[in-house]
Structures are given as C-alpha cells and as structure tokens.
Amino acid sequence: MDNIRNGRFKTGMTDEAAEYTSSLEADKIIFEADIKTNFAHTSMLKHEGIIDADIADNILCALDSLKEEGYSALVFDPSVEDVHMAIENYVTSKIGPEAGFMHTAKSRNDQVACDVRLVLREKIIEIQIGILEFMEGLVEMAGEHLEDVFIGFTHLQHAQPITIAHHLMAHVQALKRDYERLNDTYKRVNINPLGSAAMATTSFPINRQLTTDLLGFDSYMENSMDGVSARDFIAETVFDFVALSSTLAKICEELVLWSTYEFGVIEMADEYSSTSSIMPQKKNPDVAELARGKTSIATGELITILTILKAIPYTYNRDLQEITPHLWNAIKVTQDTLSIVTKMLLSVEFKVDRCAELAGKNFATATDLADIMVREKKIPFRTAHKIVGRIVNEATASDMAEEDITSKFIDDIAVELGFDELNLDDDLIQRALNPRENVRIRAVPGGPAPEMVEIARENIKLFLDEEFERHGI
Ligand code: ARG
To answer: pLDDT tens digit string along 118-148?
Structure first.
C-alpha cells in the first residue's frame, strides 16, 4: 500500500521516525471532513472531464462505503503517515490502482487545510450555540432577580448597590461579544483552500468554484501559496476561545468567592460541589475551581500555535501539522467548560436577603449622599466627596451605620472641614443611603434600575431569537 514512498525511496522510515511524524491520532477528528473533501474534489474532476466518469463513480462509491463503515474501517500501519493516506489506501483496497486518480490535481497540503476549515466551522457553530443557550438561561435568571439588590465591587471592595439581575446581565453582554467575535472569525474560516494543490495550483483545468459550492464555503482562497500555508484562522479562533474562557473564568471565580461563608451570597447546587475526606462539614466548589483552572488551557494552546506559526517560510512546512492538535484541544476544553459553567451558574441559588444586607452596609451608598449635596445644595462634587469621605471615616471609627447619619452629623463635619452647613433634610439623607433607592434612581441606559435592566433583557431576547433562527433552532 505504501505506494507514495516506493518511487522515491528504497526503504521505509524507521518505526520510531514514522510514529514521531504521524498525525494519525489527531487526524481522527478530520476523518469525515476528509471524505467530504475527497468527494467534492472527485465530483469536480468528473464534472470537468478531468478523470473518467466511471472511475470517478467507483471512487465516490468507495468513499460512500467508508463513510458508512466509519473510522475503524481504515487500516493503519507505520507506513501510513496520516488520515489522507489511510483513506486513499482504503479506496485502493476497494477499487484497485484507479483510486490513484482521486489525487489528481490535489495535494495533502490543500486537503488538510480544507479539512481543518470544514471541521472548525462546525465546531465554531456548536460553541456559538452553547453561548446562546447560556445567555438565554442568564436572561431568564435575571428576570427572577430584577428587584433584588446586591452589592457591586471595585477592587473587590464594596462599591455601589446594583441588582443581581444587573450583575447577571453584565455576563450576558460579555458572552454576546464572545459570540459575535466568533461570527467574525467564521468569515475567515469559511474560505476554500482546495485547488491550491501543493502550493502552485495545478495544470489541470479544475473548477474551484464548484468545490467551493459543494463544500459550502463562501469563496475560495485567491492565492495558492496562502491557501496551503495560512493558519492565522486557527490562531484567531483560539484567541476567541481565550476571550470566552476569560468570561467563564470570571464567572467561576465569582462562584468560588460568593459561596464562601464570608460572602455567603449563593448556595451552589450539590451536583457541582464536593466534600472533604476529613472535614465532614465541607462543601467545596471543586467544579468551579477546576473550570477556573481549565480556562487557562486555551491560552497555552494559543501561545503554542502562535509560536509554531512564527517565521515559518512560505509555503507548506510540516510544522503546520503540529498546530492542529492544539486547536482540537482548545476546542474540547472550551466546549466542556462552557457546558459545565452554564449548568453550574444556572443551578445556583441566590441568598437574596444576604445580598440585600451587603448592599446596605459599609457605606456602599455614599456616592448618592454626595450626589444629593450636589443636586440639592449646588456644591461642587469634589467638595461633597470630601465631606462624605470624612463622614464615612468618622462613622466607621465610631461604629455608626447608615441609619445613624443625620443632618446635624453631616453639618458638624462640613463646618469642621471649613464649609458652610448644608441643612439637608433627614429623610432625604436616609433615602440617599438606601440601596433600593440607589438602584431605582439609576434609571439611565445601561444602569441597574429594574426598568433599564428589563430593556436590556428585551434587547437580548430579540438578539437571541434572531441568532437561534439563523442557526435553524
Ligand atoms: N498530515 C499532514 C498535516 O497535517 C498532511 C499534509 C502532509 N503534507 C506533506 N507535504 N507531508 O499537515
């Protein structure tokens, strides 16, 4: 069967060298795509009269039966370098040496590039659908918590009150960008390199538009050298996975923090928790931790891919074979992590009372106290900032809470700092320090006020409808 070496060499590779250079293991994933590529190419050769119709039909028939029999029908021995050779050997075993016509005007160089693009575009869509489903679940979850106040952080210190819904919808927006990034990348993946052959096309009058149409590509690559050597579409896709992973990692980190005794704002589902072999009281967020860890893998794969790609001379070099296993690994880990994080976050139970407690504590509402000074008394925000800063400083030092802040307390501090008395109404002060009120008056687009979050939810629902429909779901 090893007819491609017999001509040029007297002997085969050593087993060690053959194994070292083989891509068979990683090629499993492109098995079906390679059949499709061969099918489209052979159909085109037949259509253009480049090979005899009878021979073409025999080849197509053998490819059909391989598709039915599946990957296990292939025979592998050390002389078989990759799936392309194994498939050609299979066709040869079925129809004899005429199988060799299948390789007219085609090289494994354009073939592998074509196969990878075929598989990748499907994987991109699978991951995109996963993102849409996650967004859909989060939008629904947000709908249950529109009015539930929660604390927002900057520097992981209490910042300002928000709602649980507003926080969940922040993740939705990040996921939307992760989704759209993949849409854009898809355009550069879905281009046909077939017909580039080894690197300089072919002297046969092939019809590149026909294979492009048969394989459902948007267009074909317009330079054959670029066609066989371009792998930036892989780096770009893996970058998109890295971006998505960073959204997922942030969610995992929050789940770990939020489920601690100290935060105590969520209860993780038992299904996504572990216990300790010695400490019987433990409920550990192992799944979230592992997912947080695994979100680093795509980044590692991206660096590996970029490093392999760097400074490879035109055109095909065998180094390129080394890129695809990293792509497949990045896809697998991203897909697995997206799926588990989706289920894990959507099964979380928010402890709404604890969330509300945190929102009203620790002077997270202080910005609004400063805002009413600006609004009611027309003093510059920086002056108000200074007065409120001192109010919080003194209140915390003497263990005072929000409800202990009075107009008199404020004025004493204002005067001490060299400003006039403000004479703010006590009710107004308490309203400013109320987290629900803080949220209610942030009714600007993008804000946490329930009606604003509702608008954001409606917009996302429309987006989801359109996108699900585009994917035929
Ligand atoms: N297994 C190879 C790869 O993945 C297929 C192309 C082989 N081409 C070659 N000139 N040796 O890149």
So the answer is: 999 999 999 999 999 999 999 999 999 999 9
Residue 324 Cα: closest atom of ligand 1: 4
Quote the DSSP letter at residue 222. S
Q: What is the 3-state secondary structure (H, E, C) of 107-140?
A: CHHHHHHHHHHHHHHHHHHHHHHHHHHHHHHHHH
Which positions are catalytic? 155, 276
For the chain, give every domain's residue range: 6-104, 118-201+222-358, 366-433
What's the gap in Å between 468 CA and the centre of ligand 1? 37
> Which residue has the CA at smallest separation from atom 2 of ligand 1?
321
The reported pTM is: 0.95
Residue owning the nearest CA to atom 11 of ligand 1: 318
Domain topology for 366-433: Ribonucleotide Reductase Protein R1; domain 1 (1.10.40)
- Report the C-alpha gap between 194 and 301 in whole angstroms: 26
- Report the top-level CATH class of 118-201+222-358: mainly alpha
Residue found under tokens 């249950």: 144
* Ligand 1, pocket residues at CB < 6 Å: 23, 82, 108-109, 112, 316, 318, 320-321
Q: What is the pLDDT of residues 335-385, one digit of tens each?
A: 999 999 999 999 999 999 999 999 999 999 999 999 999 999 999 999 999
Segment (H or E) for 292: helix 286-294
- Dihedral class, residue 13 (left if φ above 0, else alpha if ψ from -120 to 50, else beta): beta
Q: Which residue, by CA, sits nearest to atom 3 of ligand 1?
A: 321
Class of domain 6-104: mainly alpha
The helix (H) or strand (E) run that includes residue 211 is: helix 208-214
**CA distances (Å), 148 to each of 251, 269, 406, in order?**
19, 20, 27
